[in-house]
Amino acid sequence: MNQMQQVQQVAPEESKQDSTSFLPDVGDILYICIMQVLLFGRPSFLFQDCSIGWHLAAGQFILEHGQIPRTDIASYSFPDKPWVPYEWFFDLIAACLTNLGGFNLLAVFSASLIAYVFVKTYDWQRSQNTGLKVATLVSIIGIFASAVHWLARPHIITFLCFSIYLSVLQKYERNAISGRRMLIVLALTMLPWVNCHPAFPLGLILISIHLFAALISRSAKDKVKFLIIALATTSATTLINPNFFELHLYILNYLKGTGILANTEEYLSPVFHGNIHAFCLELLIFILIIAFYKYRGTQKISLSSVLISIFSLHLALSAVRNIPIFVLAVSPLIGFLMQRNTNENVEIQGKIDEENKNNTEVDKSRNKFAEFDQQELRSKKRILSVVYTLVVLVLAFTPNMKTGFNPETTPTKTLDYIDKNLRPAQVGDCGFNLDNWGGLLLYKLKMKVFIDDRADFYGQEYYGKYGTIVQTDPGWQGLLDQFKIKWILMPANAKLVQALSINPQWSLVAKDEASVIYRRQK
């Protein structure tokens, strides 16, 4: 058996298991950097989107009533309208964490999950025996690209589950795990996924792509059989949710609301003009092309990896929110294309031995880096990451950590004014608010609102009327009269605020850094 055959039969991560080290590696550094930025450097980063408010309110409802809400709990406009809370399990988790440790504990949970998932992109590449420099550079670029959608919201569960599906299916394709283990892990992962975020069909798509690739490649019958069973069992698992098949119909109906989605920022295509996240996406695409060009290995390129990368690239170019999915999908492929074979490792060690005989500073520097590269490959215990996470968990219950909404971009004093003067018991249900602030009002003041950012619930017609008012399009004042609006909470620089400031029927009654309240004159 020649040397290349040995390389093909022994997976890189398997060949290093016996010599793992407890020392920190670059992955630990990346993990800690992500956590440090999200929890201390920019402590409001995870809470840029106020929709977490209605998620927390829904979770609190479940805790208080012992059941999942079936009608709306947030809007006074549609008090009895049926509602499908398809992210109920994440809502429950988020509410429990917040009740226990406030926004700090929710932030630690979200940040650690995000850091874990995206540091795995580094691990995937190193497990393919990719060089330290390349793996670190690609991982950092991927982290910057994916940060565009790092929020304390249910989609972070999709990051985790998508990552698990990628890893398990690729291991099964390489015969690193059995078909039975694949079936169990995929089904168990789908169970929380389907109850946390509506992107769970991505898991079925990944299985379908692997099945298609196996059929095209004429893989063994057992491999195809297990993939068919995996598709069937995970599809069945998606029905284990409080809404059964209604959940799938609800999601399909929501995706048809293209008019609303077309005006939602996270569903828009990336803007490649001075945007760091889009620029990093471009860099990843460029690196992938170069990696294909430079690949000289004898191992066959996985068709499934190529198809998944193409599919995820389409998603990323279609909507900003999907850039992290592309980062997760393309990292293993880049790692494979940029890997070093066993001969190269032998050459590296040979160079180390040879350069030990030389005395030049350049040779010494190369020697030290090569030794560090080889040592780092064996350092995957992540003790430092675990210790850091335990430390920040303790800090979450102290004044040393202060995460939450940014007072420069979200209401603060104006919420106090509403709480004291504009309660429904005092003035009735007659307020108008920015849609993204609806969840914040619901959670902090425990009062129903005109609208929040659940576009799937309100529908295109209602959202159209909301947009007419916000943009002060023809008929906006008539709509305010129609809805009997008596007070309005909006960003200080909003177009509607400019119109109200010169309208004698409205007067400014409260303001803070981010928002203003105008009240209709009696």
Q: How would you characterize the overall build of this protein?
A:
This protein is mainly α and 522 residues long. The chain has 2 domains: 21-50 and 84-343, no CATH class; 413-520. The protein is built from 24 helices and 4 strands. The protein has helices at 3-9, 12-15, 26-41, 52-65, 88-127, 132-146, 155-173, 179-196, 201-216, 221-237, 246-255, 258-261, 276-294, 303-318, 323-337, 342-355, 361-377, 383-395, 413-421, 424-427, 438-445, 455-470, 476-482, 495-501; strands at 431-433, 487-491, 506-511, 515-520. It has a 4-stranded mixed sheet. A hairpin with a 3-residue loop joins strand 3 and strand 4. Helix 5 (88-127) packs parallel to helix 15 and helix 13 (276-294) runs parallel beside helix 15. It is globular. Residues 1-18 and 342-346 have low confidence and may be disordered.
Which helices and strands occur, and which strands form pairs?
Blueprint: H1 3-9, H2 12-15, H3 26-41, H4 52-65, H5 88-127, H6 132-146, H7 155-173, H8 179-196, H9 201-216, H10 221-237, H11 246-255, H12 258-261, H13 276-294, H14 303-318, H15 323-337, H16 342-355, H17 361-377, H18 383-395, H19 413-421, H20 424-427, E1 431-433, H21 438-445, H22 455-470, H23 476-482, E2 487-491, H24 495-501, E3 506-511, E4 515-520
Parallel strand pairs: 1-2
Antiparallel strand pairs: 2-4, 3-4
Helix pairs in contact: 3-5, 3-18, 4-5, 4-21, 5-6, 5-7, 5-15, 6-13, 6-15, 7-8, 7-9, 7-15, 8-10, 9-10, 9-14, 13-15, 14-15, 16-17, 22-23
